[in-house]
Amino acid sequence: MSHQEESGDQETGVLRRGLESLESFSQSMEQRVEMYALVLAAICLCVLFKILNVNNSPEKSIFYCANQKFLEEFLKRAPELAEPYIPTRFWGFSGHLQTIIQGVISRLHCPLVNGHRVSLKLTDGATVTYDLYHAIEEHPDQGDFTLCICPGIGNNSESVYIRRVVYNAQLNGYRVCVLNHIGTLATVPVTSPRIFMYGNTADYAAMIKDVVRRFPNTTMVCVGFSM
After folding, report:
1. Quick one: pLDDT at residue 6?
2. Is 34 helix (H, G, I), strand (E, B) or coil?
3. Which of its termini does the chain have fewer beta carbons within 10 Å around, N or C?
4. Can you give the pTM of this predicted structure?
């Protein structure tokens, strides 16, 4: 065998070993990528399960009330509240996901509701306003029902999610009143040295009293949001 043939065989052997090494490295990298992908998928699932709280089991609500007799009477009239709450599996367990979905829906559908604004002056000088909306359709029970809404902190009747609630309530035969938190409306001046706080229910109480004065025979349903 000539020197040239031997040199060619050596080069072929080196090339073959190089290709084998490259193939082995490629397989090793594919296995690592697959492993990293599985780890990443597992982490994403753990985070998703944590955010959605899908592994939470339904629990009974805990009630705190200074007047035990009032609480007993309240639960007697609404026994469903004492049962375990089972929310919608996909989004019902997570307030974060509810907020995200609400934000997406708000961009897709924002109903226009027409009402009139009522202004009240409290003893501390505060100007409290609420918006009043009349029912569009008749209530299924043929009665007079008023939905009294307290929006989430920093929100008011102009908030998109409140407008959707108002619109759907009107379609189902409810009159609706919505408290506007002090300091959240640019068109309503702040006339007191305070703004709204959940530790003081005077603003909401003033709205309720005024609604009762206007509609003494109505049945009131009080609803509060945290958004």
Report:
1. 53
2. helix
3. N
4. 0.66
